[in-house]
Amino acid sequence: MSSIEPTPDPGSDPGPDPVHGEHARMQFAALCWREHAGGLQVLLVTSRDTGRWIVPKGWPMSGRSPFEAAAREAWEEAGVEGAIATDPMGEYDYRKGLKSGAELPVRVELFPLRVLREAAVFPEVAQRRRRWFAPHKAARRVAEPGLGALILRFADLWAHGRGGAQGHAPEAAPPDLDHAARG
To answer: How many percent of the chain have pLDDT more than 70?
Structure first.
């Protein structure tokens, strides 16, 4: 993710922030996930400024679709690649603190990304930590309630599509998430 503060882009204005009434800027994020030991895990990374747990996300990128931008952020911030959904599974809002002290309302579209490769060296490896969490723990670690709710919703869809506690993990993603497996 670029360290340059965002500039206004009319194409990325999703409209007023439902909480604060201000126009929110758009970001695209990857919900990085994998199956591990018969269960679902979600990858979180730390933010560069405060060290809080977040999902990889960033601003729109010229020449890239929203899901391609989310996949690029997953590589740059978390060092992962995989099959990403072409449609977002949902969105959440947060307020981004700027260096000036101002806050910018941001709406984030979240794209599930099934991790197929995890690199030891990636662009922001020295600036962030990454860690795999069970979904309920990941949902508690993130500061944004909307993101936590989306993580739990994804886990519920995954569990029901996978046979829940039986541990049966078919090759494809559950029906509602099948587009994530095709990428």
So the answer is: 76
SS3 20: coil
For residue 74, give both structure tokens. 């997953």
For domain 24-163, the CATH superfamily is Nucleoside Triphosphate Pyrophosphohydrolase (3.90.79.10)
Rounded Cα–Cα distance for residues 73 and 77 (Å): 6
Residue boundaries of the structural domains of the chain? 24-163
Write the pLDDT tens digit of every residue in 76-132: 999 999 999 999 999 999 998 888 989 999 999 999 999 999 999 999 999 999 999
- Helix, strand and coil content of the chain, in percent to the nearest 5, comes to 30, 35, 40
d(CA 117, CA 97) in angstroms, rounded, equals: 32
Is 131 in contact with 104 (CB distance < 8 Å)?
no
Rounded to whole angstroms, how far apart are CA atoms 179 and 67? Answer: 12
With a CB cutoff of 8 Å and minimum separation 6, the contacts of 66 are 28, 60, 88, 109, 111
Strands 103-118 and 23-36: parallel
Distance CA 70, CA 75 (A): 9
* Identity of residue 175: P
Tokens read off for 99: 């260096």
Task: Give the tokens for residue 107.
Answer: 């709406």
On whether the CB atoms of residues 2 and 77 are closer than 8 A, the answer is: no
